[in-house]
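Fold this complex.
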Amino acid sequence: MTMPTPLTGVVPPVCTPLTPDHEVDTSSLTRLIDHLVEGGVDGLFVLGSSSEAAYLTDAQRRVVIETVAGHVGGQLPVLAGAIDMATPRVLDHVRSVTEAGADGVVVTAPFYTRTHPAEVARHFRLVAGRSPVPVFAYDLPVAVHSKLDAELVLELASEGVLAGLKDSSGEEGNFREVVLGARGRADVSGFSVLTGSETTVDAALAMGADGVVPGLGNVDPEGYARLYRYCREGDWVRARVEQERLCGLFGMVRVGDAGRMGGSSSALGAFKAALYLRGVISCPVTAEPQVPLSSGEVERVGKFLAGAGLL
Amino acid sequence: MTMPTPLTGVVPPVCTPLTPDHEVDTSSLTRLIDHLVEGGVDGLFVLGSSSEAAYLTDAQRRVVIETVAGHVGGQLPVLAGAIDMATPRVLDHVRSVTEAGADGVVVTAPFYTRTHPAEVARHFRLVAGRSPVPVFAYDLPVAVHSKLDAELVLELASEGVLAGLKDSSGEEGNFREVVLGARGRADVSGFSVLTGSETTVDAALAMGADGVVPGLGNVDPEGYARLYRYCREGDWVRARVEQERLCGLFGMVRVGDAGRMGGSSSALGAFKAALYLRGVISCPVTAEPQVPLSSGEVERVGKFLAGAGLL
Amino acid sequence: MTMPTPLTGVVPPVCTPLTPDHEVDTSSLTRLIDHLVEGGVDGLFVLGSSSEAAYLTDAQRRVVIETVAGHVGGQLPVLAGAIDMATPRVLDHVRSVTEAGADGVVVTAPFYTRTHPAEVARHFRLVAGRSPVPVFAYDLPVAVHSKLDAELVLELASEGVLAGLKDSSGEEGNFREVVLGARGRADVSGFSVLTGSETTVDAALAMGADGVVPGLGNVDPEGYARLYRYCREGDWVRARVEQERLCGLFGMVRVGDAGRMGGSSSALGAFKAALYLRGVISCPVTAEPQVPLSSGEVERVGKFLAGAGLL
Amino acid sequence: MTMPTPLTGVVPPVCTPLTPDHEVDTSSLTRLIDHLVEGGVDGLFVLGSSSEAAYLTDAQRRVVIETVAGHVGGQLPVLAGAIDMATPRVLDHVRSVTEAGADGVVVTAPFYTRTHPAEVARHFRLVAGRSPVPVFAYDLPVAVHSKLDAELVLELASEGVLAGLKDSSGEEGNFREVVLGARGRADVSGFSVLTGSETTVDAALAMGADGVVPGLGNVDPEGYARLYRYCREGDWVRARVEQERLCGLFGMVRVGDAGRMGGSSSALGAFKAALYLRGVISCPVTAEPQVPLSSGEVERVGKFLAGAGLL
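Structure:
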């Protein structure tokens, strides 16, 4: 399908269900897609950080995008991450995911390399110049170790290099600068500003954001769809209640023991455990070398679900 | 060939010459290998950071390892980087480079992901458990954003998980702790401790390091071979003179204007410019999105070569 | 006066006007206080980062707090920073500012030292145990290089160690966690959650924050007072318009040439230039070694004022 | 006394013994000075990081410098740290310590503030312009969160702003660049390059460093004096044996449980425990909020002493 301009609404970063021996579980993946679509989401983002793209092999990435694009069949837009270290490798992923049906690609600044802001700009220009579909910038300093500042994003937007921004930086001041800049500049149009936050969605939408890409949206797509609707209707009271319920649910990302595992193991482990407990996916395993949640930790995920009315 | 235990000597991280349209220039690559072998190096390390592995596509990486392993034909050991974000992707590279003839693989901690020390250890154990060749840990905090501490490295050495360490952290205190630990522990043997420094090689060898992996060794392999020999002979006076000459030459990494490009563009650009000026490779281009050196900057590289007696 | 429980409203971090020879300009300081009080603020925060506390000598700090506390005479609460590296030095400042009339103190985690979270908690407990006035935690990772996480803040709130939080981290997710935690826990009451942001005040208040500590409030106290009032009245449409006007004004912090000066020189230089242009203070000089704005940069500050209807 | 030009030899950063109620223990301090002087050191550095300067109040700092300068009475040069956030505060300390008899001051780049390299240079120029004694730059990125690069240090050396560098960065490549630059430039003379490392002293001296400032020198001044002498005599074999003995002893810095305390608590706690166990100081307490070593941890310090032949 053609990408809406701008892309709006709830676009969850889709988890990648795995089998016990760490292969992509395509049955669970299609069930997850159905769960999201029925939950009222407006688009799908596969092969991002919440999808464990950093772990998936190229073959597994291909299975994911083919499965999702094939299953969705153009009902709603599918964004795909092209997550890799630098331009030529990113372009390989762009080619692969667009051949498989991605309607847009999501690209970070180079990482691992020591990169100058001028090189970051050059990277996005080169990628966009050779991509057959719109390019969204993915701002994720915790992974990439550099920040996309508002000025650069707006410059690339005005050049037509970027179609949107997925901001997972957690820095709302810079985010708002992009929102206001995208609206205020005559040379920018149709640019989509999306927040990756789970817990400040009402705030982002109140500021003028176009949409949200919440990892927790895998677990409770109806919740985020409702939240989005309330915000669009200007019903800030109900929006806040819904958002605060989701804030409570989000507490699950810290069930994992920080002395025993990293933040990804805990957060992605919790999302997958929740999807498993809700009967959406068949197995909650995460990719290696992440550490699995203990049974006690999974039980605590269940309590978060129960507390949010989801079990 | 079988990997020496421990691996010792000068093992330069081999630059990847590119054509003007950014493909691997295999003719230049084999000329570079001849230049290094004739220069007296003891091994080769391909597909590391100095090889621009972060930029090279999988197909290009394959061309590099096939070209080098084929050309070397077992005369000396070839290490290959398996640089990627997390375990499953790293294992794909391990498979690819060992099928093409690598005698050992070089692996970093996971990056892009948020990884706990326990997960870093698990990563190396999983990779080593499935690698048909010895695994060397690559400590490069500037790229990976975490540090391999001495205790972890020695634990993995004692388990037989790691065959060696390439330390590019620049932190000599931790480096010495590994050197002393590897020598002092009964449960560690044949472990190779290699410094990635260009400018403190005499110091590292005086401390007991097994070898050196200097990017500048591409430009002046004879210099590093001499330096290594002087150190092994205990001729610290001549070693220091040679090392200081190489320190002067190393100044070339800063020819690039820091207002216009990042550190990689400047350093790798300088190494390639030097190889081009010395007639070893046909084209000094670096991978995208790195910024090329200006002609004035290339000229300054030439002055460094002249100053070190290499032009 | 007694500190309100919780402290609410607009509490600007008061700039410290200096004479051309870098002494505290007490006449300008009292004029600035009048400007703020007449502008409708609810409290004052002196000797914080926007006050250049990191630069002011102990004698200068004393002049500031004595001048302000004396001039205010209990009309509204005065918070004072006790900004220093570790507990004993912080306690010296606590003693000094409370003797001079501060109604509350604002304290960061230790910095310069390498401090464990357990030591951060111990620091706040020790300071609060010996402070005659309520202690507010100051979360400013850009200066302190560690983050106060929500769990620690709430634990210290429940113990009665902290009376409030001034959050200048820019991380709205963690901020909201504190807001919800402070409201949701039976063992926490009267705890004041204040945002240090200039540009997301409407969002913070919509989430349930108690007040705001905006550096830009020096320049336009009426604006922030209006914004606060609209938010409290639930008039989110007018609040957003006012906030967006202030976002535009805030652009002044980037007038300084980033190739020639740091972020403090530019932002504090702009605030002082604006106060000078508005006729509030006699001299826009900042403390050493900050770099002064050029006349062209000061002119651009004037344009920001004009654009916001303040000249 | 007049500061030697350049300052050379062993210049330990003197620990600050405290009483059980956290006041400066001047009797222990003079005993520690005697222990160091009898151990053969060439100078003393008080009020640095190993002296817990970040914790000591101004009054305590004054007691330390007065006690040490008075006790030493010009027998050997006394450097004093003037550790604070920015220029005016640093200048207050410079005044204080030089009035009390310091022969030189040691100054870091500004911290807590967000400072541009141009402002760092300005800071050192302003401090040196108003200091009655020579100024040494203190490079300690782990505390200050910025690095003094070789180019800046050498520029300030050539201007006569800096008399020397105490490099505690652990980055030997940059350190060597300063050493070679200070020797190679006609416009730099008498500049003293000192390493703050405990474990790479032989390497630093072999490279041409002028002296060493090892925290562990408090515990074993004779060891460092011997090590320095062997290096100066070119007896690298004995130097390495001595250095490796000291590397073993240095392991004490990690006795503290990293789950319970920070690196300072562990390292400074171990140095003080060792001085206590050796009978030099009366009480091993560290300043607040550092966490004390447990009795088991102190026992392990004793084992390190025994292992190095010091008990």
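The first strand of chain B starts at residue 9 and ends at 10.
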